[in-house]
Design brief:
- There is one protein chain.
- With 406 residues, this protein is of the alpha/beta class.
- It has a single domain, classed as Aldolase class I (TIM Barrel, Alpha-Beta Barrel).
- It contains 16 helices and 12 strands.
- The strands form 3 sheets. Strands 3-12-11-10-9-8-5-4 form an 8-stranded parallel β-sheet.
- The structure holds flavin mononucleotide and iron/sulfur cluster.
- Flavin mononucleotide (FMN) binds next to strand 4, helix 10 and helix 15.
């Protein structure tokens, strides 16, 4: 370790995050595993998957994504948090802890962005009643505006889920405020057209997301680690801007968030912004079983899957603007693949870094970085062939490792 440059030494040294000590500043980013059994529960494969990152030396790994209630699942076979699955969650926490790593769970509700035909409610719910471009392909033509009682119920479902995770031995939860999920739908002027106190300026659009944070905090207490993942900007006409997100980040900081993960884009409308690199559309089309949906994807795909060529640290410029406006921890995510990039992120004052694809490519990245320093080569090509595997029976994985690892 003594021969490492300062940035990498900082990255690989223990660091405190609210009440817990992480053995280093590398956090496995949420990468929806899709490794579930037939009962909407995490499978042994999912436990092994996270154990690999723990063995490989990450400070913390993140289970994703965990819906807080049945209608929060994008499709009916996904997982939602409930008491019944506590034993599996406990096993996961024990396995991860055995290797000195911490465990977080990403709580995300898909809201209006649903393809779930087995909904408990009549329609997918969101900030505003609207025609659903995503749902249309699955026979879900309209979304339903949430009333205040439903907002309270859903906020409570987040709190309940966080409480279950805490009891199961998780060290943190990550609330999804971005990527076009429910809380992001409230934040975006494109999806939030409300005329009441939950729509309009950024303060109003943040009202429900902050109520969710408040409900979670009340449930888990001040000492438990609560993170937020946000979309800094979405490159959509009339959508989320960095200016608004800076205000949103200040509100999260004021209301007691412990750390903010700084992402971009929306899965529902501009997904390539969050990934950069090769388009995931061909992979999604080839995994789709329904011919009508495949046709729909071909028709709308080109406008939705815009081109964002890969470059290292593609979100750094926007993310750097948050350092001066909040005092909570800031967690960089997005194209931190090479040792020089990781070093730069640390030298620029970010507290932690989340890694998605680089860790999928090499789950032992932290150990390899410690051994090789600046000579470490990760090998992720940003082909993005891992992303469409979310619904694959084998679950997500780096396709380059297909023979080697999983
Ligand atoms: C296969 C895959 C699945 C993902 N699933 C999620 C998810 O469930 N929730 C989320 O917030 N981000 C998800 N992401 C985005 C990552 O968390 C991360 O923001 C993005 O990959 C950029 O980081 P990277 O360059 O380190 O991969 C996913 C990314 C990949 C590659
Ligand atoms: S499939 Fe492997 S190489 Fe391609 S983007 Fe995913 S992690 Fe990187």
């Amino acid at each position: 370790m003594s021969e490492l440059p300062d940035g990498l030494t900082k990255l690989l040294s223990p660091a405190k995050l609210n009440g817990i000590m992480l053995k280093n500043r590398i956090i496995k980013a949420a990468t929806f595993e899709g490794m579930l059994d037939g009962n909407n529960n995490i499978s042994q494969k999912c436990i092994d998957f996270h154990e690999d990152f723990a063995k490989g030396g990450v400070g913390m790994t993140t289970l994703a994504y965990c819906a807080p209630e049945p209608d929060g699942r994008m499709i009916a076979s996904y997982m939602y948090i409930r008491e019944e699955i506590t034993p599996r969650l406990q096993q996961l926490a024990e396995k991860v802890h055995q290797h000195g790593a911490m465990l977080s769970g990403q709580i995300a509700h898909c809201g209006a962005f649903s393809r779930n035909k087995a909904l408990h409610r009549k329609r997918p719910v969101g900030p505003t009643t609207a025609f659903s471009k995503v749902g249309m392909l699955y026979g879900l033509y309209f979304t339903q505006e949430m009333d205040q009682q439903l907002m309270r119920d859903v906020a409570q479902s987040y709190a309940h889920s966080a409480g279950i995770m805490k009891k199961a031995g998780f060290d943190a939860v990550e609330l999804h405020f971005g990527h076009g999920y429910l809380l992001g739908q409230f934040l975006s002027p494109v999806t939030n057209k409300r005329k009441d106190e939950y729509g309009g300026d950024i303060e109003n659009r943040m009202r429900f997301p902050l109520e969710v944070l408040d409900a979670v905090r009340r449930e888990v207490g001040a000492d438990f680690l609560v993170l937020a993942k946000i979309t800094m900007y979405d490159d959509l006409k009339g959508g989320i801007t960095v200016k608004d997100s800076l205000e949103a980040a200040k509100m999260l900081d004021r209301d007691g968030i412990d750390g903010i993960v700084l992402s971009a884009g929306t899965s529902s409308q501009n997904p390539m912004l969050l990934f950069h690199g090769d388009s995931i559309l061909p992979g999604l089309i080839s995994h789709e079983k329904n011919p009508m949906v495949r046709l729909g994807m071909r028709l709308v795909g080109k406008t939705m899957f815009r081109k964002y060529p890969y470059r290292e640290l593609y979100l750094l410029e926007a993310a750097a603007r948050f350092r001066d406006v909040v005092s909570c921890n800031l967690i960089y995510v997005g194209g931190a693949t090479e040792p020089g990039s990781l070093e730069k992120v640390m030298n620029m004052g970010f507290d932690f870094v989340q890694s998605g694809r680089p860790l999928l490519r090499d789950p032992q990245m932290p150990l390899h970085l410690a051994a090789l320093g600046k000579n470490y080569v990760n090998g992720c090509t940003h082909c993005n062939k891992c992303a469409p595997l979310m619904d694959d029976p084998q679950g997500i994985r780096c396709v380059l490792n297909d023979d080697a690892l999983y």
